[in-house]
Amino acid sequence: MNYRNDIRNIAIIAHVDHGKTTLVDALLKQSNIFRDNQQVGELIMDQNTLEREKGITIMAKNTAVIYRGVKINIIDTPGHADFSGEVERVINMADGCLLLVDSMEGPMPQTKFVLAQALKHGLKPIVVINKIDRENARIAEVLNLTQDLFLELATSTDQLDFPVLYASGKEGTVVTDPGRKGKDVSPLFESILEKVPPPQIESGPFQMLVSNLDYDSHKGQIAIGRIWRGKVAARDSVVCISADGNQRNYEISEVFTHLGLERVKVAGAEAGDIVAVTGIEGVTIGDTITSPDRPEALPRIDIGEPTVEMTFGVNTSPLAGREGRFTTTRQLRERLYKELETNLSLRVQDTDSPDTFLVKGRGELHLAILIETMRREGYEFEVSKPEAITKVVDGKLMEPVEALSIDTKAEYIGVLTEMLSKRQAQLVDMRNDGDNVHLEYHIPTKGLIGLRSAFLTATRGEGIMNTIFLGYEPWRGEVASTRSGVLIASEPGEAITYGLNNVQGLGLTFIEPGTLVYEGMIVGMNTRPQDIAVNVCKEKKKTNVRSSTSDIAIRLTPPVRLSLEQAIDFINKDELVEVTPENIRLRKKLLTQAQRLRGISLARRSMK
Ligand SMILES: Nc1nc2c(ncn2[C@@H]2O[C@H](COP(=O)(O)OP(=O)(O)OP(=O)(O)O)[C@@H](O)[C@H]2O)c(=O)[nH]1
Ligand SMILES: [Mg+2]
To answer: Average pLDDT, whole number, for the chain?
Structure first.
């Protein structure tokens, strides 16, 4: 077997926020690929607007640097569990990985998931204990915990022999001994060159696996992936093999490789490198592009199943069609099916109703990011409450179950225990460390929906929770909704201060004076369990005598503004979130009181 020593392919993997993208900044900046005066800022790879706003990586991305004449292809991956599909999508391009572990938090649920993925694909890991500049770093302990994790996951003893480095990605320093002061990231570069195996190359006709797609208005579809065999150059004739084994002939237009943030056009590229090629229209991720001389498909990318589903429908609210550019069934359907080309862990299905589609994803955030992206593109639609995806195995109803780990202050154990038992969580482990407590639960996915905001409130923000998918278990029965009732607008019109002030006696309101409302729109939350219809457009009766100035001076409590994620977390099964580029409105599925009453009596009758 031959190797090419001029390339290394690595993936950077970790739990969310453990500093992957920041470390990539340091690798890019210290490899002199930017001009001296070039302003690149921070989290350079998080270029997508939502990534910048939320401060998290959503999509895995490729970059490359050159160190001592060796090209290091780097794949930055997201750490949030909802985007695990991205890790699965790209991990097969790498021969090694940097497993980052926060020097304070230590290994977390997603650390385990990504390490398991890396070991399954035979990647050579380098452990990087990161953020060692943190005041409360506990480096030795975190290293021990990381070793335990390897003991648990390794499938062969040589996987237990991994190098360990200590880094502050933020300061751009890496050391081999945590007692020393670092000056740059060169120990990491050296370690990559020394420990990550150079790519093996197989000679023979060209073969590459497509792991990513991009689009350019001039060049058309761009297919990105690793070359496993042979070489490729512009004008080569190739065959693209799709999932059904179908083979189509194409000619490669151009070949690019990565360098920093650029794609560099090259005459050709060889096995072991990660390239982008154009000219293959209609290619999808997982396809193999090969030489027609030996058209053999590589194994397709293995992606975990979605666990959460919700419907996306054409907007049926009385205010529909006013704010979006794309509002029809056809536009919504096309957009959703288009998303499948790059969002591999997403599923879309038509339903019995032609205006509604069932969309399945890896978690609430996975779906919320899609909703937010579409709304910014100008789409207007309505979505239902996310629900766990159940399935029937051997005649038995099964539901997804996840491991939930919580770190918080001991004083919140009481409230959390009560809240979680209502959601069918079972405590499996609890560790105390003075004031701090670590709790581990097994909880059905349905019990997790809406949990995050309740958790933050219950722990006053002094806690972190993480989840990871475990598997399917027998259905444990419905979880009763613990939410209070809502305040529903009874009349259409414009909300006014007087009407809102009356309603604020009943609970919290979600809208400001001047907001357009319709009958059946949710305008607030009741302090009691039942829903009530209220008139927020109600004006004060006019009298001839102005009694006082008191009604001019009404002071409303500021409304609670729900973000998109909070809104989809908040609604119940009989409610919808109406999403437009300008507004997020909550509504009852059945808009009039008469319809809702009939709905209740029908449901009662069917239960009898
Ligand atoms: N103290 C300290 N903070 C760091 C360091 N590296 C990153 N951070 C901070 O940690 C946070 C997360 O950093 P990111 O680089 O976005 O983490 P990530 O692993 O890419 O996160 P995801 O891609 O969303 O999983 C940011 O607020 C960084 O400023 C470090 O070395 N020391
Ligand atoms: Mg990141």
So the answer is: 93
In this predicted model, what pLDDT tens digit does every residue of 41-51 receive, in sequence order? 899 999 999 99
User: Relative to the CA of 171, which ligand 1 atom is closest?
Assistant: 31
Nearest CA to ligand 1 atom 12: 17
The 10 Å Cβ neighbour count of residue 340 is: 15
Instruction: Map tokens 């996840």 to a residue.
Output: 402
CA trace torsion 209, 215, 217, 219 (10° rounding): -20
For the purposes of burial, counting CB atoms within 10 Å of the CB of 229, is it exposed (0-12), middle (13-18) or buried (19 or more)? buried
51 sits in which H/E element: helix 49-54
Other residues' Cβ atoms within 10 Å of the Cβ of residue 413: 16
- Ligand nearest to C-alpha 104: 1
What is the 34 CA–ligand 1 centroid distance (Å)?
21
Q: Which two tokens stand for residue 241?
A: 């093999």
Given CA atoms 259, 260, 262, 263 in this order, what sign does their dihedral have?
Answer: positive
- Cα 87 from Cα 345, distance rounded (Å): 11
pLDDT attached to residue 393: 93
Round to whole Å and give the CA distance between 465 and 456.
9
Q: How far is the CA of 83 from the centre of ligand 2 (A)?
A: 11
Q: Identify the nearest ligand to the CA of 80 by its number.
A: 1
What is the rounded distance in angstroms from the CA atom of residue 290 to the CA atom of residue 252? 11
Ligand 1 binding pocket includes 99 (Cβ within 6 Å): no
Q: Are 372 and 564 in contact (CB under 8 A)?
A: yes
Ligand 1 geometric centre to CA of 150 (Å):
23
Q: Give the C-alpha separation, 225 to 233, whole Å.
A: 15
Q: Is the CB of 14 under 6 A from ligand 1?
A: yes
Q: 594 pLDDT exceeds 80?
A: yes
Place of tokens 């990231």: 185
Distance 382 CA to ligand 1 centre (A): 34
The Cα 360–Cα 358 span in angstroms is 7
Amino acid at 480: A
Any atom of ligand 1 within 6 Å of the Cβ of 169: yes
